[in-house]
Give the backbone structure.
Amino acid sequence: MRRRDIIAGLSVAALWPITVRAEQPAVRVVGFLSTRSPDESVALAAAFRQGLAEAGAIEGKNFAIEYRWARGEYGRLPALATELVQRQVAVLATVGGEPSALAAKAATATIPIVAIFTTDPIKLGIVASLGRPEGNITGLSVLNATLEAKRLGLLRDLLPQATKLAVLVNPTFPAAAGQLENLQDAARAANLHLQVLNASTDAEIDSAFETIARDGLQGVVVATDSFFVVRRVKLASLATRYKVPAMFSLRSYVVEGGLVSYGIDLPDLYRQAGVYAGRILNGSKPADLPITQPTKFELVINQKTAKLLGLTISPDLLSIADEVIE
């Protein structure tokens, strides 16, 4: 073989890997914006990835995930959302309620957003319709604000002699007004005195439980809010310390020692959000994906905590519980 042919062949061989690399499609990125913390969201993030896999998206193969965590501090969300938008993610999943969805909506009008809402996104002006959301946002609506009334009723069933209850609500949470409206309507219908306690800091949570004890309130509904979820160990501990029967929105509170919860199967909700994100990666448009609502709810009771509080839970209530933690 002539020398110049050898040199030409070597030149082509040297260039070949560069050409191949240039032709490889860039790995798409899924943004994950959460109001919660990474350490207490391991199972939820895994459920989200499971949903993506069900839609044919395999992490590390045809996409990667970038996570941003607000750790219950809603003021951090706008900057975190902007970071993900600047990263040019292919789809942005916002979880933990309206604060993350609103931050994402303010950051981009073009990148597809899959959101988990705790209330009606139409009332908040986030989407135009549940069936055809239009724009770049779709997702799942828990309508948790309407579930607050159900939680109050279950707490009353647990405490049939109670006449004075409290609700702990975060006034900075976008769905707070709807939560209170539903709770107050339910309290009036049940002829209950409902005292509203606001808390958006740890110190205010401590103060709220001091007020419950001082005013002789017989139980408390802790409203749905990621700010509270991140502090669920603290809340469960305070309720036990002050011997206050407390109703929570998620099973995770009860696992940490809370008395009772009624709400959605949260891991399954994250899985469904992952399915939607995967469908968008595969070419679906948010406007063509209706905002769905969960159909599965679970009542969880902690019998050990009930004994610590000196409560006897009726057999009827125990019989309808989906899970009883002994």
Remarks:
- The first strand starts at residue 28 and ends at 34.
